[in-house]
């Protein structure tokens, strides 16, 4: 039942996503004793102009 | 004031979305006694490579 | 696979929550052709001082 | 550490986003005494057919 | 229609929350030309043991 | 910059949370090449009456 949402900048390869969801699912299964089937992972990809740190868009950082 | 977010795989038709938000809004109005105007629904569509169950991307499922 | 999150002011009874998740699940099953097992609903209850409309906390509304 | 997510209809200019994240970050820094570096802002843009109020899609409103 | 969710560590006073939602709402109204009524703000308060940076819970930081 | 939100049923020990955020952070660092400092994890704990699968509250499951 754990549902994990990952917000990250767009541009990862399919292979990176494949590994990311597999490793996060393992982490959840190991640590909170949930069956693998119950673990759902959502990747939310953001364009660089839709994320900011310290008030500055990622698209504007050098 | 209830705000509902629905995460679903992309590819629904406009007509399906139209019915989905209408029926969810009805459900909320009926069950928690909120005025219809106060109910907001956000649909968050995910590509098949951005959602995983049991550690496997939906795009990789047969 | 649709995952629904409902943000609402705290204070609903168990019976109201029971009906709400059942009706929302029905709406999703009817409209997007998902199997009932795949539909997950999260209720996120907020204290009245943690929600604002038009810049005013719900706790401060008359 | 405050993490702010803003759901809004798509179609803002880069300049509008730039000002929006700067002003929201200032608001957070002023009000909860967080260092600017710790404030993250995510903009989640929705197509007009993915948002509804009172059970009607924004795309269907006149 | 912009809906803003702010995740922050618990422990702010009512007065801090009051100012925070007012200033964030102003920022949104100024920058994306939304009517104040349409702006909703949700505060999601987290206990110190429910937030981590660099893999370390906030509750464990010195 | 990846920001991870984990929705799970309440009742984990502090030690379980400690391991969970550490392992998830490692997974993200390994798979998407982010510096550890940039990875934030939010745990959102839900009471058993605030989560449903197949239209039935977790609190009502045997």
Concise structural overview:
The first copy, chain A, has 62 residues and is an alpha+beta fold. Chain A has one helix and four strands.
Q: Show unreliable segments of chain A.
A: none
User: What is the helix/strand order of chain A?
Assistant: EHEEE
If interface size is counted as residues with C-beta under 8 Å from the partner's C-beta, which chains form the largest one? A-F, 25 and 25 residues
- The CATH architecture designation of chain A is 2-Layer Sandwich
Radius of gyration of chain A: 14 Å
Report the top-level CATH class of chain A: Alpha Beta
Mean pLDDT of chain A: 96
- Structural class, from helix and strand content of chain A? alpha+beta
> What number of domains of chain A?
1
Strand percentage of chain A lies at 25-35%
> What is the end-to-end distance of chain A?
40 Å
CATH homologous superfamily heading of chain A: Macrophage Migration Inhibitory Factor
Oligomeric description of these chains: homohexamer
**Sheet with the most strands: spatial strand order of chain A:** 1-2
Largest sheet of chain A: 2 strands, parallel
Number of strands of chain A: 4
Task: Write structural notes for this entry.
The structure is a homohexamer of 62-residue chains. Chain A is of the alpha+beta class and 62 residues long. Chain A has one domain (3-60): Macrophage Migration Inhibitory Factor (2-Layer Sandwich). In chain A, 31% of the residues lie in helices and 31% in strands. The first copy, chain A, contains one helix and four strands. In chain A, the strands form two sheets. A two-stranded parallel sheet of chain A has the order 1-2. Chain A is elongated, with a radius of gyration of 14 Å. Chain A starts with a strand and ends in a 5-residue tail after the last strand. Chain B binds chain E through residues 1, 3, 40, 42, and chain E through 1, 3, 40, 42.
């Amino acid at each position: 039942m754990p549902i994990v949402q990952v917000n990250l900048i767009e541009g990862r390869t399919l292979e990176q996503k494949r590994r990311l969801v597999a490793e996060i699912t393992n982490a959840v299964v190991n640590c909170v004793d949930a069956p693998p089937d119950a673990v759902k992972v959502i990747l939310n990809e953001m364009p660089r102009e839709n994320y900011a740190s310290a008030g500055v868009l990622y698209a504007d950082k050098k």
